[in-house]
Design brief:
Layout: H1 3-17, E1 21-25, E2 28-33, E3 36-44, E4 50-63, H2 67-79, E5 85-90, E6 103-114, H3 119-146
Antiparallel strand pairs: 1-2, 2-3, 3-4, 4-6, 5-6
C-alpha cells in the first residue's frame, strides 16, 4: 500500500465516520451527496501535508463550435466561485468518427492542501467538499435555468 493509498483510506474513513456516503474506486473515492458524486483523489505533498483534488462531473457537454460563448460564460461563473472552478475536458470518444466535432465535458474542480490528517483539517475538508459541491451545482443550475449564459 503506497502512502497515497493510506492517506486516501484515512480520509475515506473519516468522511464515512462523519456520516458522508463515500466509496473507494480505483485510485480515488466517490463522495455522494444526493444526485451528485464528487470524485476525490489524495496524494502526499513532497513538502509535507496532503493534496486533495476534487472533481464534479456536471453531465454537461459542449461541442467545439460553441466554445467561444461557453468560455465567456464559464469565465463569468468562475469569478463568483470561491471553492472551485469550472473547467473543460476534451471527451475522448473513440466510437465517433474522425469527422465528428470535438466535444468537451464541463467539470467542477477544486484542489485543497491539508496540513495533516488531524481532526481540524479533516473538518476543513468536509466543509470544503460540501461548499464546493453546492456552489458549483448552484451556479450551473442558476445559469442553465435563469439565462442563456451557458447553454450546451
Amino acid at each position: 500500500m503506497t502512502a497515497s493509498q493510506t492517506e486516501l483510506q484515512r480520509i475515506v474513513s473519516a468522511l464515512q465516520a462523519s456520516g458522508m456516503t463515500v466509496e473507494t474506486v480505483e485510485d480515488g473515492a466517490l463522495v455522494r451527496n444526493g444526485e451528485n458524486r464528487v470524485a476525490l483523489f489524495a496524494e502526499a505533498d513532497p513538502q509535507g501535508g496532503v493534496i486533495v483534488r476534487l472533481h464534479l462531473d456536471l453531465d454537461l457537454y459542449v461541442e467545439e463550435d460553441a466554445l467561444p460563448d461557453i468560455l465567456m460564460g464559464m469565465n463569468l461563473l468562475n469569478q463568483g466561485l470561491d471553492y472551485g472552478a469550472l473547467n473543460l475536458d476534451p471527451v475522448d470518444d473513440e466510437d465517433l468518427g474522425e469527422d465528428a466535432p470535438l466535444t468537451f465535458a464541463v467539470l467542477g474542480r477544486a484542489v485543497l492542501w491539508l496540513r495533516d490528517l488531524g481532526a481540524a483539517e479533516l473538518e476543513r475538508l468536509r466543509e470544503h467538499l460540501r461548499r464546493f459541491e453546492a456552489e458549483v451545482t448552484e451556479a450551473v443550475e442558476r445559469t442553465l435555468h435563469g439565462s442563456k449564459g451557458l447553454s450546451a
